[in-house]
Amino acid sequence: MAILRSRALPRARPLVRACAAPLLAAGLVAAAASPAAADGPVHDLRRDLDALLQDPALEGAVSGVVVRSAGTGEELYGREADTALLPASNMKLLTSAAALEVFGPGHRFTTDVRADTAPNRGGVVRGDLYLVGGADPTLTADAYDDLAEEVADAGVRRVTGDLVADDTLFDDERLHPDWEAGDEPYYYAAQISALTVAANEDYDTGVVTASAEPGGDAGDPVEVGLEPMTDNLEVRNEAATGAPDSEPSLTVTREPGTNTFTFSGSLPAGGDGYEALRTVDDPTAHAAHLFADALEDNGVKVTGGVARGAAPAGADGVADRSSEELGDLLVPFMKLSNNGHAEMLVKAMGAERAGLGSWKAGTAVVETAAAGLGLDPRLYEQADGSGLARTNTMTANGVADLLQAARGASWWPEYENALPLAGAEDRMVGGTLRNRMRDTAAEENVRAKTGTLTGVSALSGYVAGADGEELVFVVLNNGYSGPAPRHVQDAIGVRLAEFSRDGAQRMADGAAPAGVPAATGAPAAETAAPGTPVPDASSLECSWAGTC
């Protein structure tokens, strides 16, 4: 049966800071942009961008927009360029750049298994076995099984003490204080730990996949499950199979502070199944219990239970597992806009440079790294790594400065490769831009980071003009009341891809560039979970909808 995926949007919340006065009347809008040259291609470009930004979807909104020549830094367009705006996931542009600056693209995150004593001839470890987290976001169930197999290959057959989970690389603040409490059950706001489980090959951390299948006839139980399932998780099945023509209403909830997952509602007989990501409480415990099961499966008996603590300095090394290189990890992180990865990177930077794996220490390290790249700290305010907190702000000029600085860094190839590529079919190439700007001059040309919160949408990155000139562009839209204005962002991307200093290009009055529809985005209805309200397609980030 087809599986329907559900990923929910953050709830609406007022902007933390008033960004600017409402836009002026249409006749004055153009005055907010860069002073235009008397005539020529740049003048035409500015006129066209002014026209695009008068789209009704942006009524009452504030848009920070900057276009520069990547090579010379010449500003081709600017609007509200120094206004502090919410960046949403454009904050990941800063987090990833700082991580590459701090760790280098070849860095790997290592998870260790240590023991109080080396195994004796009989394979017995006298004391505890320690699972030490090192901020690896790619530890799937298979990875934990491989690590357990390595423990067995090291000669360990029995542990007389406990399996102790050591997540002390990070502090114990699992959820950022500025995140919406109502978002906590959803994967994009999962708890953060240095020792966690990735539920799938996208490396969504701190979550499990909740699934359900209807029974054969109305009244039959619904078959439900969690993956990866562990002993510390509990499932309550209150769901039933409905009549074949009934509306699906199945939901999965978890009470905060518990790991009890309740399936309720119904699925129609003969209908589709249900699949959704849900966060776990205490991802460290989930990881430890998963590893305990893997040890048992590989013939290693732990006499005690699962505990928590710090591995002693003299503990004996038994096994270890390293992640892929950071430059490769940035691909799923940035292409799919993975919030958990961003937060783990911020805390890991704090642990690396300040000896404290906290948001406060990590963002301070990001600020230092950004200053080393020549960025002005007055142009941004960072609270978290992902942009989920509405206390983050950036200016369009600040983002443009970052994008230009990245081009001159030693890690530029990895950074560029990690950005979503417009219209690219492969989801690990196109990412959140996979279904956007297809069949236009921007297809497989625009490389940019998307961003979405309620009332916030962003697109910032790079594009080559028609004559090959590399351009940096930033679009930060805040305060609109309807669906996300992605069609405006896409039209800007296409217009920049068509720009050439060798000849004038102008859109027809009121028209968007060819190939850009009035609204874009992956269809939401075909991916929404049964019983879940379906928002307008253009208001969904495709990573939230599970369509990219």
UniProtKB/TrEMBL annotation:
It is an enzyme of class 3 (hydrolase). The keyword Signal applies. InterPro entries: Beta-lactam/transpept-like (IPR012338), Peptidase_S13 (IPR000667). Residues 239-259, 507-537 are annotated as: Disordered. Gene3D superfamilies: D-Ala-D-Ala carboxypeptidase C, peptidase S13 (3.50.80.20), DD-peptidase/beta-lactamase superfamily (3.40.710.10). Keywords: Carboxypeptidase, Hydrolase, Protease, Signal. Residues 510-535 have a biased composition (Low complexity). Residues 248-259 have a biased composition (Polar residues). The keyword Glycosyltransferase does not apply. Pfam families: Peptidase_S13. GO terms for molecular function: serine-type D-Ala-D-Ala carboxypeptidase activity. Its EC number is 3.4.16.4. Residues 1-38 form the signal peptide. Belongs to the peptidase S13 family. PANTHER family: D-ALANYL-D-ALANINE CARBOXYPEPTIDASE, PENICILLIN-SENSITIVE CARBOXYPEPTIDASE A. This is D-alanyl-D-alanine carboxypeptidase/D-alanyl-D-alanine-endopeptidase. It comes from Nocardiopsis suaedae. The gene is dacB.
